[in-house]
Design a protein that fits this description.
Number of strands: 92
Shape: extended
Helix content: 10-25%
Radius of gyration: 53 Å
Strand content: 35-45%
Number of helices: 15
Distance between the termini: 81 Å
Largest sheet: 6 strands, mixed
Length: about 1450
């Protein structure tokens, strides 16, 4: 296959191929050969596109994957989903297949297409290990195809992170048979690490974790053999060999763990043979151990989940949308995606994380239609998605304020949820800290540690270990601090180990700080062969200073290479020390795990005694070391990869060692983006203020000078870069006591405004209408700089009204002849490769105001004044309104009188008016920019004598024995003047005399009054009248009667509440009136009925006014819904407690067993071609289930069944003979069932019998024989009739009827006479044409008078169709029946067809059509508006065609 030529300058949109390739393509086309396919890679990684031709038609394209399927790792039994989005013109066809096996099982594999998102989906239900495979997705059209692959990995239920201990202790009995094959192990030992999984799959092995552990043991065994057979290297080759082994180990580790610490290539020491042996023995163990770490890391990632997922957002255009989610465990960042593309923080998207790293947010700025779609948040292997719907801007104009829209479903405070999640994590940490306290208590009671080297003892307090250099000292210290998990199998030990793993993943920083200062060496057991990686407990997305906090041992390789000799070290405990308590042992195991994350310790802080000689017993606390070497089996090898500590030790450890961890970082350096010519600052904090540190830039030490300013404030170390320049960018490092932290400083030169120009630019610019506006600003920054000007969000371009002038450090915008519509927000945006900046200003265009807005509203009109108000101008011209100028004209005159300039609001009170005259006013608004045009009011009339209307009837607020409180509303008609007050009157019940409550000269100013002139126990009613300048108006209607007595007590509960009648829409309740108990509960005056649905908590009141009877009909119920019902009593004292039914009530009638009110006919005969209609009426409750059967089988689909609450109808539009049978209806409900049947025979006029023959077997008789009718086989009720014609009588006489055979013997045949016989076929529909027999016998010849007669001609009765009675015009009432009929004749019988508006009705089941002996009728059972139109009936036969029409109109 020809490959495309690589060219970095090629367009990414149009493929370009080599000249040789194009020549071959051209040759194939000319010669007629099939064009060779062209393969090219897609923009989407992992997609291969095959193009069938070198050139594509315009507008056409090959398939491509816009979003390829993502690999899925999922637990067994779950649903796996692959999604792909493809493009191409024409639209490609998408198919799926797998590498091993098929996907034809539709129950397991389902393919779908989502039209809303354009996604092609493959769903795999209830995945098992057999579905773990590589899946291929292909998209093909006529111009090419695109292919991509993905994988499905199925995790067994026991491999979940929450149950990781079960994975580590999985039974060896589950191993496949391939494990015992030596060829399998040879293949693994000689293969690269990337081939492990493939080799295991080929041999049918699924437990990869167990295989890696066993592979480590086999590699270790081979490494020991190599130790025995290894040769001692020459001193001259020491450096080369060390470099060889060290580099190879380095490359392996970097390949497996890309984010691990880098190895230091410097510092190779002469102690080469020991280092070479160590690296050779542990080189491949590093590889296997790293594979286990990667597997553990995958399980840790799967532990993260979403507490609150992102929700769908509906946002208006130009607004911002904010997605929010909360995680179960802190992550520094998650991945945000849209349409398969990863979103990055920038101008369009803002990605933020809370301080506790639990809340993650994505903001989409300035949303438009293209932002609509599905957005996803991915955390580890867990994800969630939601829609963003962008709606049109409702107000229609440009938005100046961009609001942020959150999801409508999110009503929870995310900070509260995050705090609760942090508390859960903190509770788990407390368990670990409790174990630490147990460890601390144990350390205080322990004393006397003994260190033996080659069997010799040394005093650890008086003597110090001396080495050749500091590196050797550090190596011995590192060797002493190496540790492994104890091989002891104990439940407490395993649980503490698992607990620490889980807690360290969630928040490793807190665990590390809580455990600083403790190093655990396994006690009482041998070291296991398995090595623990300090990276194993790091979070997958941990920041740099957190990694430093955990304390990765970074100088391990350097220390190991500096060893001159291997040492055998044993720790022993004096016999006087008692056995360790099991609880302390469990706590030790926890600390052993935690201390694995410690930083390296400074060798100067730890001294050891050294003494030459053989091993001797010495007192407690003494230490002895020997220079002698042991055998290879007893030698301890220390090989440190990038972050790994490995050790082989066969001697048991019996004593703990507690050492000072030294200094560590509280927080490390963070990357800084500095601005050129400004100050940048790097800060870190140590755990102690007693340590000095050094600063480095790109590996070179720096000190304080004119550029760098270094300070130390206790444990806080700070580096300040003054006046940053481009060459100050680089990697900065701070080191203290062997610890270091690094960060990058990036000096950028983004666009920046001149501060003075920026201050002047941000001030609003005000100009008068028609003038020019100029905006200018100076800036600096790295060139080139893109300059954009905006007005209210719309970018400005050079045109007749806008002129933009740009230079290297200056930009100027000129807006010519500005109008009011040009005012708004002016924005300049500068952008270069280092960033962008914006500045905002405001343009104000000043003009005279628009006229005040009308119409003017009259607030008071009396004989002495007119008061009115209006609205301010819609546009004040950019300046506030100072005053209004008014003019007045009396209606009927031509002159305008200037009233003057009025300060204040838009209102005026004119007191210089004459009673009854009409006036008109002109109003102008006055601002600093000028005077507006005038607004002219409508005519206003000064007040005349007009009384106010009646107020509303008074309402009784409360009543007591000495006072009744009332209130009312003012009259709607004030009479043109303000209301001065009210006059209140009262009247006793039964009296006709109204008495005034208040004095005539003391009007009631308010609308509330307390009537105190009452007598206890008397009923009163009240009325009120309003008074204005013209006098008192009409009185209101009387109020309700009120007793002058103290308030009553609320009534009690009703009793005997029950439902007496129910239906689908209503139910009837009855109850008993509650008893009256003086002082406790008074008599009930009315009742309220309330209901609520079973799935609702809201009660709704059925009656707004109390009902006075003890029964109520609840209406408007939903059929078959469940309702709770209660009744509340009420009187003047208020409402009593409710009484509720104990059970819900179902909205349905009382159960009734189905029964037929009108049964069907037992037998029906229908002519073939006509419609069949069967209607059955019944009674049943609840609504029954109705089933129609034909011959005990469900009716076919061509049969229409219509059901209602009390009837059912079966309709066959055009019947056929096959429709004959027994039709049954089954009506069934909860109470019972009922059936009814009828036999329907669909038939037609029978065809005549065949040839008729005569035979004489007995003298005086004739046997008539005939061939059967063709319909005899299809109609079991068909029979025959025989008629005889005697030559002596000349009339046909029936001789036999209902014959079911094909012969009949006729008696009494007289010799000498002629006989003729006719045979008819008959059925339930009618009789056929006759079949005639030949003449039988000879008539005696008699001499007769011969009369010559003229031969008669046969009469031809055939004729074309004609309408004897035409259709008439019809006007029907809506909902009633309508019948149309006409009469037609013709021979042969014509075929009748009905039409409405030229559409045939013969097959429409809504119309009943019949044709009986030429009388054609059409019936419409319920006339509606859709039936209006022209109706036409057409009669056709072989001789012609006739047509008749009419119109139907519907009224009502």
């Amino acid at each position: 296959m020809w490959k495309r030529e690589k060219n970095s300058s090629q367009s990414s949109n149009r493929p370009c191929f080599s000249l040789v390739h194009q020549y071959i393509q051209r040759f194939n086309e000319v010669s007629g050969n099939k064009t060779a396919a062209i393969r090219r890679r897609s923009k989407t990684p992992g997609v291969m596109i095959t193009q069938y031709s070198a050139s594509l038609p315009e507008g056409k394209s090959t398939p491509d994957f816009q979003c390829k399927p993502v690999p899925v790792t999922i637990p067994e039994g779950k649903l796996a989903v692959f999604r792909a989005v493809v493009t191409g013109d024409p639209k490609p066809d998408v198919s799926w297949r797998r590498a091993k096996g098929t996907i034809t099982d539709k129950e397991k594999f389902q393919r779908k297409y989502d039209e809303s998102t354009g996604e092609h989906i493959l769903e795999i239900y209830k995945v098992t290990a057999t579905e773990s495979d590589t899946y291929k997705c292909s998209a093909v059209n006529e111009y090419g195809k695109a292919v991509c692959t993905t994988t499905l990995s199925v995790i067994d239920e026991t491999t979940t992170p929450a149950d990781f201990r079960k994975l580590l202790k999985k039974s060896k009995e589950e191993r496949a048979g391939g494990e015992n094959d030596e060829k399998f192990w040879d293949a693994l030992l000689n293969a690269e690490r990337k081939d492990y999984e493939r080799i295991c799959k080929e041999n049918g092995i699924t437990d990869l974790h167990l295989i890696l552990k066993k592979l480590e043991e086999k590699k270790k065994q081979r490494g020991q053999i190599k130790h025995r057979d290894s040769v001692i290297l020459d001193e001259d080759d020491d450096d080369d060999e060390a470099r060889k082994y060290g580099n190879k180990s380095l490359r392996r580790t970097q390949d497996l763990r890309s984010n691990g610490p880098q190895q230091n290539e410097s510092g190779l020491y002469p102690s080469l043979p020991a280092v070479a042996q160590i690296n050779i023995s542990n080189q491949k163990l590093n590889q296997a151990g790293t594979e286990e770490d990667l597997l553990l890391m995958e399980f840790k990632l799967s532990n993260v989940d979403f507490v609150i997922k992102i929700q769908e957002i509906n946002v208006e255009e130009a607004d911002n949308a904010l997605f929010e989610c909360v995680l179960t465990h802190p992550l520094p960042q998650i991945t945000w995606m849209r349409k398969g593309l990863i979103l990055e923080d920038g101008e369009k998207y803002s990605i933020t994380v809370s301080e506790h790293k639990l809340i993650h947010r994505l903001m989409i700025k300035d949303c438009n239609k293209t932002d609509k779609g599905i957005y996803s948040a991915v955390a580890g292997i867990t994800s969630c998605s939601a829609w963003l719907v962008v709606e049109d801007h409702k107000s229609g104009g440009k938005k100046t304020i961009h609001k942020t829209t959150l999801a409508g479903g999110i009503q929870t405070d995310l900070e509260i949820v995050a705090k609760e999640q942090e508390l859960k994590n903190q509770e788990e940490m407390e368990k670990i800290l409790e174990a630490i306290k147990v460890k601390q208590a144990a350390e205080k009671v322990r004393n006397g540690k003994t260190l033996t080297i080659n069997g010799e003892y040394c005093n650890g307090t008086d003597q110090h270990l001396r080495t050749e250099d500091k590196s050797s000292e550090e190596d011995i210290r590192v060797g002493a601090l190496e540790y492994q998990w104890s091989a002891k199998e104990g439940a407490e030990q395993e649980e503490m180990k698992e607990l620490l793993q889980d807690a360290q993943f969630r928040d490793p920083l807190k665990v590390n700080e809580g455990l600083s200062g403790y190093v655990k060496i396994s006690q009482g057991k041998e070291f296991s062969d398995e090595c623990i990686d300090v990276d194993e407990y790091q979070s997958p997305a941990m920041s740099q200073h957190e990694i430093n906090q955990i304390g990765v041992i970074k100088n391990c390789n350097k220390s190991a290479r500096s060893l001159k000799e291997s040492k055998r070290v044993q720790w022993k405990e004096p016999a006087s020390v008692p056995d360790t308590d099991p609880k302390e042992q469990a706590s030790d195991e926890v600390l052993s795990d935690v201390d694995e994350n410690k930083d390296t310790f400074d060798s100067e802080d730890h001294n050891y005694s050294q003494q030459n000689g053989n091993a001797k017993d010495m007192p407690n606390g003494q230490i002895a070391m020997s220079e002698a070497h042991g055998t290879p089996e007893d030698t301890e090898g220390v090989s440190c990869g990038s972050t790994r500590v490995r050790r082989k030790k066969q001697s048991p450890l019996t004593q703990d060692l507690v050492t000072d961890p030294g200094v560590h970082f509280i927080w490390g350096l963070s990357d800084v983006d500095a601005i050129i010519h400004e100050t940048a600052e790097l800060t870190c904090k140590l755990s102690s203020d007693d340590y000095e540190g050094a600063w480095f830039r790109d590996g070179k030490k720096i000190s304080s000078d004119d550029i760098f300013f270094i300070t130390k404030d206790g444990p806080i170390h700070k580096l300040v870069i003054i006046n940053c320049a481009e060459d100050h960018s680089g990697k900065y490092r701070f080191e203290a006591d062997g610890r270091k932290t690094e960060a990058m400083v990036n000096v950028k030169d983004p666009p920046r405004f001149n501060p003075e120009d920026l201050c002047a630019f941000t001030e609003p610019l005000a100009i008068k209408v028609g003038h020019n506006a100029i905006f200018k600003v100076q800036f600096v920054g790295h060139q080139p700089i893109k300059i954009q000007w905006f007005r209210d969000g719309d970018e400005l371009q050079d045109d007749s009204s806008a002129k933009i002038e740009n230079s290297a450090g200056h930009s100027r915008l000129l807006l010519s002849r500005c109008q009011r519509k040009d005012m708004g927000e002016i924005k300049i945006k500068l952008k270069n490769e280092h960033g962008f900046t914006e500045a905002l200003s405001k343009l104000l265009v000043l003009d005279k105001p628009s006229p005040p807005q009308g119409p003017a509203e009259v607030t008071e009109s009396s004989a002495s004044c007119i008061e009115f108000k209006w609205r301010p101008p819609k546009d004040d011209g950019g300046s506030p309104v100072i005053s209004y100028m008014l003019e007045r004209q009396q209606v009927g005159r031509n002159t305008w009188k200037k009233i003057g300039e009025m300060k204040g609001g838009p209102a005026y009170r004119d007191t210089d008016v004459d009673r009854g005259r009409r006036y008109c006013y002109r109003i102008r608004a006055v601002t600093a920019e000028g005077i507006s045009e005038a607004m002219e009011t409508d005519d206003m009339q000064a007040g005349t004598f007009a009384l106010p209307g009646p107020p509303t009837p008074p309402q009784v607020l409360s009543a007591f024995h000495d006072c009744i409180n009332l209130s009312w509303s003012p009259p709607s008609n004030t009479g043109g003047s303000r209301i001065l007050g009210y006059v209140l009157e009262k009247r006793k019940k039964g009296s006709n005399l109204w008495s005034v409550v208040n004095a005539a000269d003391e009007l009631i100013k308010g609308r509330k009054y307390a009537v105190r002139d009452v007598v206890e126990g008397i009923e009163y009613e009240f009325r009120v009248s309003a008074v204005n300048l013209s006098g008192a108006g009409e009185s209101s209607n009387p109020s309700e009667f009120a007793f002058a007595r103290d308030p009553k007590k609320p009534p009690g509960k009703v009793t005997s509440l029950k439902v007496t009648e129910t239906s689908y829409t209503n139910m009837v309740l009855t109850w008993t009136k509650p008893e009256e108990k003086p002082g406790i509960q008074d008599e009930a005056k009315g009742y309220f009925v309330e209901i609520r649905q079973a799935d609702s908590l809201e009660w709704s009141r059925c009656n707004t006014t109390p009902c006075i009877v003890t029964s109520f009909n609840v209406r408007g119920l939903r059929s078959m819904e469940m309702y709770w019902i209660r009744v509340i009593t009420a009187n003047d004292g208020g409402e009593g407690p409710p009484e509720e039914l104990p059970n819900y009530v179902l909205a349905m009638p009382s159960p009734v067993r189905p029964k037929f009110t009108k049964r069907m006919k037992n037998f029906m005969v229908v002519k073939a071609g006509n419609s069949v209609r069967i209607t059955v009426n019944f009674e049943a409750s609840p609504r029954p289930e109705i089933v129609w059967l034909k011959d005990n089988v469900l009716v076919s689909k061509r049969v229409t069944v219509s059901n209602s609450d009390c009837s059912s109808q079966l309709l066959i539009p055009i019947s056929e003979r096959s429709d004959s049978g027994v039709y049954s209806i089954l009506v069934k409900n909860l109470v019972g069932q009922e059936t009814s049947s009828t036999e329907i025979r669909v038939t037609d006029d029978p065809k005549p019998p065949g040839l008729v023959e005569l035979e004489e077997n007995v003298p005086g008789t004739v046997t008539v024989m005939w061939e059967p009718s063709p319909d005899e086989k299809r109609d079991d009720r068909l029979h025959y009739t025989v008629s005889k014609l005697d030559s002596s009588k000349r009339t046909w006489t029936p001789v036999a009827d209902r014959l079911f055979n094909n012969r009949f013997t006729v008696c009494n045949i007289v010799h000498g006479r002629e006989y003729h016989f006719r045979v008819f076929a008959k059925n339930d529909m009618g009789i056929s044409e006759p079949s005639e027999s030949p003449t039988w016998g000879t008539e005696k010849k008699k001499e007769k008078l011969v009369v010559s007669e003229t031969a008669s001609k046969d009469c031809d009765l055939r004729c074309a169709p004609t309408f004897i009675v035409p259709l008439k015009l019809h006007t029907a009432t809506r909902g009633y029946e309508c019948y149309m009929s006409c009469a037609v004749k013709g021979n042969p019988s014509p075929h009748i067809t009905w039409y409405r508006n030229h559409v045939s009705l013969n097959t429409d089941t809504n119309y009943y059509i019949s044709n009986t002996c030429g009388v054609c009728s059409l019936a419409i059972l319920s006339v509606g508006p859709k039936d209006v139109g022209e109706y036409t009936v057409i009669a056709e036969n072989s001789l012609g065609r006739a047509e008749c029409s009419t119109l139907l109109s519907v009224r009502g």
